[in-house]
Amino acid sequence: xxxxxxxxxxxxxxxxxxxxxxxxxxxxxxxxxxxxxxxxxxxxxxxxxxxxxxxxxxxxxxxxxxxxxxxxxxxxxxxxxxxxxxxxxxxxxxxxxxxxxxxxxxxxxxxxxxxxxxxxxxxxxxxxxxxxxxxxxxxxxxxxxxxxxxxxxxxxxxxxxxxxxxxxxxxxxxxxxxxxxxxxxxxxxxxxxxxxxxxxxxxxxxxxxxxxxxxxxxxxxxxxxxxxxxxxxxxxxxxxxxxxxxxxxxxxxxxxxxxxxxxxxxxxxxxxxxxxxxxxxxxxxxxxxxxxxxxxxxxxxxxxxxxxxxxxxxxxxxxxxxxxxxxxxxxxxxxxxxxxxxxxxxxxxxxxxxxxxxxxxxxxxxxxxxxxxxxxxxxxxxxxxxxxxxxxxxxxxxxxxxxxxxxxxxxxxxxxxxxxxxxxxxxxxxxxxxxxxxxxxxxxxxxxxxxxxxxxxxxxxxxxxxxxxxxxxxxx
Amino acid sequence: xxxxxxxxxxxxxxxxxxxxxxxxxxxxxxxxxxxxxxxxxxxxxxxxxxxxxxxxxxxxxxxxxxxxxxxxxxxxxxxxxxxxxxxxxxxxxxxxxxxxxxxxxxxxxxxxxxxxxxxxxxxxxxxxxxxxxxxxxxxxxxxxxxxxxxxxxxxxxxxxxxxxxxxxxxxxxxxxxxxxxxxxxxxxxxxxxxxxxxxxxxxxxxxxxxxxxxxxxxxxxxxxxxxxxxxxxxxxxxxxxxxxxxxxxxxxxxxxxxxxxxxxxxxxxxxxxxxxxxxxxxxxxxxxxxxxxxxxxxxxxxxxxxxxxxxxxxxxxxxxxxxxxxxxxxxxxxxxxxxxxxxxxxxxxxxxxxxxxxxxxxxxxxxxxxxxxxxxxxxxxxxxxxxxxxxxxxxxxxxxxxxxxxxxxxxxxxxxxxxxxxxxxxxxxxxxxxxxxxxxxxxxxxxxxxxxxxxxxxxxxxxxxxxxx
Lengths: 476, 469
Fold this sequence. Notes:
Chain A has helices spanning 31-45, 79-89, 101-107, 109-118, 166-171, 187-205, 220-223, 227-241, 265-272, 307-320, 367-373, 407-413, 420-432, 437-447, 455-475; strands spanning 51-55, 70-73, 94-100, 123-128, 178-183, 211-216, 245-249, 294-302, 324-329, 339-347, 361-364, 382-386, 401-405. Chain A is α/β, with parallel strands linked by helices. Chain A has 2 domains: 13-249, Thiamin diphosphate (ThDP)-binding fold, Pyr/PP domains (Rossmann fold, 3-Layer(aba) Sandwich), CATH 3.40.50.970; 294-475, Pyruvate-ferredoxin Oxidoreductase, domain 3 (3-Layer(aba) Sandwich), CATH 3.40.920. Chain B starts with 12 loop residues before the first strand and ends with a helix.
């Protein structure tokens, strides 16, 4: 027989004996009914091949024994997240997220709220029987006041809170398009439940949105009632707390549509920002007048000074010039005290230690940075500092070449204080002769290719930095 | 004929195999004609007392069928019911579980890339680019420093390639979205850092149990607790020994340069699908932030859909993703299968890099960024005439004991350098123990914590002191 139920439940204890055709549910349990209504809906909508059913943790953990669809079994409370993963992986799949009250309304609250508020077309079936079935009759978030469970032995009271009304909670979110609460206790309710489940699937199949159906269900075993009494209990005790009916039903146009992922090499090259062109690259001589194989620089200031940006430009320039280079932003205990610093290494073949503990070159944007890192500069090194804000620099080792350049003042004179870092970069290039000026200009043009308006002022700032160093050099 | 759903026009009457009736009695109340009654005879197969169906007054309304919770309980049948009751259920239900076809894999392909200029990328970005080239179009995540730039770049780039980035409600949700996406057979990844990784462990255990691929970037930061955002390596025990509950392991890759962030990411996806198991890329915060030169590969991957996936199509309808094996004997078999997989990983996936190890007497062992400081230290020691070498494990699990063993004979000391309290050293010691190596050279170490990295000079000083001792 070809239906949406397996011909034989081989996953149910290997289908031995009666288990091949019989569910694991207790007599009078509502889960079997919901499974049947789901199977009918899947069949009627013609989506069996595309359907993925997410089994929860709870009594329905073994839903995959029965439904002949793609099956995935989730961790406790995480079925909506798993469902989202499947739906994003294959937007054509019809994903059914099936959960009980502990799963959905307790441990999985974050996941269900996110999934329903996202509103990606999926169908959520929430079976609420006011108790934990699988673990043996403990309090559920939907347990009624005064209801006795194994963890509320004298009845649920004020200390354990009021029952969660999930259909109302989900219904007031803007994400889902359809939310209804139904029950199973008589013919009329069962017909409504069938229709609701079908509708929750249909809104997904039509790509209109997310459907959520809460089903008030019977757990005769843990209510310690006959199946018939359990039906009456749902009707008389649960329904007043969990009113039946449509909580939300929005008319929407089909909207959900994801294209097939793109694996075209040309598109990928563009997207990752790579290129086949050799953008003015080639080998420059290694600046061995600074160090034979590994040069370290430190750019230090306060956050916003732009130290990281010019450090990155230096690294890019070095790589374009044919060398290995690293840039690393401030880390470690030295970063305390409001300084933001960047360490750059440039090496002939491979940068070994990327930290600049004893830099050849220090660029300092404020007094604290100069005070802290000035003493770490190697003998024969170069220090550049912003003389606009550092009026009285500390005494430097005589072996160190020091340049006080008014980075900020030059930038302000140009009309844009934030280009002080570019002034500093120009000054650094002039003072160290690390790579040719054009190399840096190329890198800068490349970096600003999407912000062309900024290029002229940055070039000007860069040149002013160079000129300032040259002017100082002449006076020496 | 038997159908599973009620055909209203035909008005079929109900039929019941008594052994499948659990006697809940819903049908009794449902029937308006009073055709169904509480039974009195115990069914010898089920030990229950099925209801009795007398169809004299039945008008085929079908309400009893809609009220029966059992799929093969009350069923609608047309024609002569007496014939049906004489049939063997095995013939009625068919010989196979499902009519779905046997799942077939849809193979992936390697697509050539043009010769590309090297890029200048920070570690997390290199990893993101690697994932794109490895065919990953699905990234899920929750922001956490210092890993976030990887997720941010993916959020920017993936939509341009018709991929998907979803910012999940938490790391717990993230790993379970990956469970779904990986379960569908697709290549997915997340970027996280230590506290976030802790939250993912439950889901990783489920993924291992359900045999699902997925790549986890753990850009390790200072701990315990909220700690700080500095670089640490104190998740090594977690990634090597503590991937959630149960019998869990995953290949753990430890890059030490932006280039390796890219290269090992591509390898990680292949390993993850090869074994149907998550792969962890354990980097440190420093490496995540570090920018460097990155060469691009010659090919990119256009992935297919594996045979086992639950993709949501006819070809894969018969598949199941689950980690539950309720019968103990079944779970034991499943564990044996997983253990055999771990054995294959241990046999095939050990990776290490050696720098001047051939004649090394002082073997420095380090991974991630500290390995770069260690490499600098080894170079400096060599310049001083001290025979030092760097052994850099690239796989932390399985530990590359095969590559380490031949170096031990000549070594006079092992110096483990790490930004953590000795978790890498624990892995070395465990690997030696499992390999029954009892005469390993003595251990010493350089350790820093809390976001502070061991520096080159500390390592040089340590080794120099050992040489002089």
